[in-house]
Structure formats: C-alpha cells, structure tokens
C-alpha cells in the first residue's frame, strides 16, 4: 500500500484505485479512510504494524511486591489499611501480594507475665527437677501440681471473628449483663495423667478456706489415687498469699514432710505459741 501510494505520486484516491485493480482477488479491499489511516501511521511511526498495547501497570508487579514485603518485614504489626494509605495499592492487591509471598496474619497469644526474679526461680526449679529425675525417673508422676483460676461473666467478645452469613441482615444481637457481674473460683490439680478436681470455691480464697480444702477436700479428691503414690507424693503450689499463711504452712509441713514445692513456702519449722 505504501509503495502504491508512492507510485501514484501521493494521490490517495488514485492509490486506492490502483491497489484495487492490482489485487482484485482480495475480499477486504481497503476504503479511502482505511488507506489514509495506514499511510498516516506509516508517516508518523515508520511502520504499519499495530501499535503494541501499553498494558496498565499491575498492582502486584515485582516493584510493588518488594515494597509491600519490605514494609511488613520492617513492621510486622502494620495493618493492611496502613499499607494501603502509604502505598496507594488497594487492600485486595496487598493481601494478594502477602499471600503469594507466604505471609499469614498470625494472632497474638497471651501468657503470664514474668518478673525479674521469676527467671532465676524457674531455672532453679528446672535444675531441682532434673536432679530429682536422676534419683527417681518416675518423680514427675508423683508431683501434684495445683492452682486456682477465676472465671467471670464479663468476658470480651471479638465481634470481628463472629459471623452470621445471610442474604438479609438478621439484626443478630447478643445480650451481655455488665451491671450484675459474678465470678467463681475453681481449684484443680494435675497428678501424672489424672486431673484432681475441679473444686469450686465460694467467694475469695483466704487461708481458712484453703486450709479446709487441704484438710477435707483434697483427701476426697485423692481417693482414687493409689496409697503408695499418696505416701510418696510431692505437693506443688504457687505464691498466692493464702498459700503461705502460718496455719497453712504448719499443716503442709506436717502432711508433706520435706515434699513441698512452691513460692513463699518455708522449710519445715516448729512454731511455738
């Protein structure tokens, strides 16, 4: 078409006529407008090939992926909304980038806070336990672990994790009673592969209630435990104030002679009144 256009001394209508006469067998003969556009393209670009499409830059291309991954590594707690505001990339694309790169939104786990002295005491407990295991490989099966826990009726509800799939809004409600709160204390133990308890404590635990548990309740809970285990059993408790009261320590020193393990529990002592 370009050559014919030149042969016709750049007369467009003449070039169209000559092209149709020279190639009569072609079904799709170019019209004047098509011929004009092709010649114009050749003059502007030097080619009659279709222009390569400039594809829009993908949000998940290598550059954006590197920036998002780097931001997450720099601050593992950053939210996708913050990334969206800073990068200008949609949250959907950000989630796709993180998924492609094997990142997962792990949730926090809550653990008991330790004080500075707790690390040393835990190390001492582990070293003590290892020495006991060297003397008796069945030692852990003779150690009664005990503790209390308080349960209340005002537990937190994470609405983000509670769903109700429906076409229409069901107006799903959950009643909570913040004005009339209650709590219950539960004591439980673990001896080898057996759970000792639970035992529900009425009100706040104090030394008198704890002593009654040790004197009256614990023997009942241990009825199914063999006599040899009970006679060789060690007793473990934490540093709750009720556990270290004088009347409690006196009883424990009589009941578990030299076999008490816990915080604030004195060695066997003879108290005089």
TrEMBL record:
GO molecular function annotation: nucleic acid binding
Coiled-coil residues: none
Domain DUF4817: 1-48
Domain of life: Eukaryota
UniProt xrefs under InterPro entries: DUF4817, RNaseH_sf
Name recorded for this polypeptide: DUF4817 domain-containing protein
Organism this protein belongs to: Habropoda laboriosa
């Amino acid at each position: 078409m370009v050559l014919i256009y030149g042969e016709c001394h750049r007369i467009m209508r003449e070039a169209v006529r000559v092209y149709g006469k020279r190639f009569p067998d072609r079904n799709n003969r170019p019209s004047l407008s098509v011929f004009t556009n092709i010649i114009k393209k050749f003059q502007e670009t030097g080619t009659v090939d279709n222009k390569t499409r400039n594809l829009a830059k993908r949000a998940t291309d290598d550059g954006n992926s590197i920036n998002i991954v780097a931001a997450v590594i720099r601050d593992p707690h950053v939210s996708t909304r913050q990334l969206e505001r800073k990068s200008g990339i949609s949250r959907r694309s950000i989630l796709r980038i993180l998924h492609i790169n094997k990142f997962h939104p792990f949730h926090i786990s809550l653990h008991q806070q330790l004080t500075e002295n707790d690390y040393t005491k835990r190390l001492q407990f582990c070293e003590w336990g290892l020495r006991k295991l060297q003397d008796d490989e069945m030692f852990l099966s003779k150690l009664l672990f005990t503790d209390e826990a308080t349960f209340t009726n005002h537990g937190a509800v994470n609405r983000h994790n509670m769903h109700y799939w429906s076409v229409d809004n069901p107006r799903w409600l959950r009643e909570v009673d913040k004005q009339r709160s209650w709590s219950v204390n539960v004591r439980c133990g673990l001896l080898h592969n057996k759970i000792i308890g639970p035992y529900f404590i009425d009100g706040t635990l104090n030394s008198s209630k704890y002593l009654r548990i040790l004197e009256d309740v614990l023997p009942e809970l241990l009825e199914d435990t063999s006599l040899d285990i009970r006679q060789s059993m060690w007793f473990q408790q934490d540093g709750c104030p009720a556990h270290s009261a004088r009347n409690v320590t006196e009883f424990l020193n009589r009941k578990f002679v030299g076999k008490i393990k816990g915080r604030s529990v004195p060695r066997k002592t003879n108290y005089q009144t």
